[in-house]
From TrEMBL:
Database matches in PROSITE patterns: RA, SARAH
Gene assigned in the entry: Rassf3
The Ras-associating domain, residue ranges: 75-161
Subcellular location: Cytoplasm, Cytoskeleton
This protein's UniProt keywords: Cytoplasm, Cytoskeleton, Metal-binding, Microtubule, Phosphoprotein, Zinc, Zinc-finger
Gene3D superfamilies per record: 1.20.5.110, Phosphatidylinositol 3-kinase Catalytic Subunit, Chain A, domain 1
Full protein name: RASF3 protein
InterPro entries for this protein: RA_dom, RASSF1-6, SARAH_dom, Ubiquitin-like_domsf
Keyword Iron-sulfur appears in the UniProt entry: no
Amino acid sequence: KDVQKETEPHLYLSKEEVKEKIQSYNSSVTDKLKMTLNANGIYTGFIKVQMELCRPITVQSSQSQGRCAHSNSETAFYLPDGCVNTLHISSTNTVREVIEALLKKFFVADNPAKFALYKRCHKEDQVYTCKLSDRERPLYLRLVAGPRTEMLSFVLHEHETGEVMWEAFTIPELQNFLRILDKEENEQLQILKKRYAAYRDKLEEALGGVWKPG
């Protein structure tokens, strides 16, 4: 039943219960990002989403920044680590809609099906991460958990490697990814060559000192 409540949250709170929780939530807010209850029972508010993406994203080239690989009018680049985005959403917005809104805000051209939204919870000094289903309502989860992000936070990830829908990628996207991977492989190879060359020089120097006559 608890699992069902989490996957179908809109079915388990009356309007009065929602009103009480929103009042309690707003009284604890410290960053002015309060929730608002409308006359029709739908409420709106804010969630913050940590962007933790390992693979490059594809955006319009005019919007790109950072390390890039160009392909016509689009650019693939890595999103900076620790990027956090704040979204204003309603209680009716699903996880899938939140992902689409995030990608639109960043001008990301990638298929939303490539990404998943996770919730990160802190319980008894332990951190738990769980992927949310497309049907869940993030604002409800935020309301129930309260405004403290150390109790509950949202994270955007790519699907795990085994779950990646490669057919969702376009040919230019895949070609961009290959070019980026080739570049990074060459960079790492040059670093390794320099490191081992330095080790070799030191070993030869040490051996020369050991075997030097007199």
